[in-house]
Amino acid sequence: MIATAGHWSVGLPQIQLCSRSGSRMRTVMTTQIGMRSLAILGAAFAAAQMSFAQEIPNRVAWSPSYSGSCTDCSLVGRNMSGWNISKANYPGADLTAASLRRAQGHDANFRGAQATGVDLRNGDFTGASFEDAILVGASLQDAMFNNSKMSGVVLTGANLSDGKFIGAILSDAQLQSGVVHNADFSAATLSGARFEAADLTGSVFDNAILLDADFSGATVTDASFRDVRFSGANLEAAIGIETANFEGACASPVSRLPVGLTLPDCLAY
Questions:
Q1: How far apart are CA 199 and CA 39, in angstroms?
Q2: Residue 22: other Cβ atoms inside 10 A
Q3: One-character DSSP codes across 61-113
Q4: Count of H helices and E strands in the chain?
Q5: Which of 51, 81, 149, 218 is the most exposed place for a label (fewest CB within 10 A)?
Q6: Is 229 in contact with 250 (CB distance < 8 Å)?
Q7: Model-level pTM?
Q8: Once rounded to an integer, what is the mean pLDDT over residues 67-86?
Q9: First to last CA, the chain
Q10: Is residue 81 within 8 Å of residue 105, measured between CB atoms?
């Protein structure tokens, strides 16, 4: 019995086993059909996998360096610690109890995100957008938000200790009852921000804009408000006012200042 190679067909060699009987050669086995069947089955399996993947809602190809878009998607409890998500687009995303500890989020968009209890500790969100985001009870310790856009952000009960918010825009931000030890808000815009009952011990607000801000009942022990404009601001019942630095600061006739604090009229500058 002799094995002979036939012609090529569809990229596969045709192998035949033949027996000689006189001058005739009779085909007894062809493997081409079996090999072609296997190829067809493999293609069908791959197609089925692709169809199944497309049926999964909000499926995103996450990776430690993902910088794509995830509008209004659910990332509840997601562990994204240490990821590089710079320039990522997450408007309206649900980041409740998610962890972005040590994440790199330069210029990322979290506008309107629902992020109650999110962990942003040690992250770098320079230039990022958190406008109208909900970060109630969030952890922002040692995180960087320099030049970030955070107007209308809700940080009630959040911990911002040792955070950097230099040059950030936090107009109408809500930080009531927050723990804000040694944070840096130098040159930040905080017009209309609310700090009622917040603990601002040791924090720096030098050259910040605090028009109409509310510090009633806040602890400002050892805080620095150098060259701040307090026009229309409320500092009544602020605690530790005698240890805070108000050098170069000013107020307006409608500003409400605690007993013992006198500031010059900003119109005189």
A1: 68
A2: 5
A3: ---TT--SB-TT-B-TT-B-TT-B-TT-B-TT-B-TT-B-TT-B-TT-B-TT-
A4: 1, 3
A5: 51
A6: yes
A7: 0.75
A8: 90
A9: 109
A10: no
- pLDDT tens for 151-172 read 999 999 999 999 999 999 999 9
Per-residue tokens: 201: 């011990």
- The one-character DSSP state at 219 is B
> Which residues in 32-47 are b (16+ Cβ under 10 Å) and which e?
eeeeeeeeeeeeeeee
User: How distant is the alpha carbon of residue 106 from its chain centre?
Assistant: 9
Domain chopping of the chain, boundaries: 2-54
Asked if 73 and 93 count as a contact pair (C-beta separation under 8 A), the reply is yes
d(CA 135, CA 261): 33
Tokens of 19: 């027996």
Q: How far apart are the C-alpha atoms of 23 and 25, rounded to whole Å?
A: 7
Query: DSSP string of 155-188?
Result: -TT-B-TT-B-TT-B-TT-B-TT-B-TT-B-TT-
Q: Six-digit token pair at 267? A: 């119109």
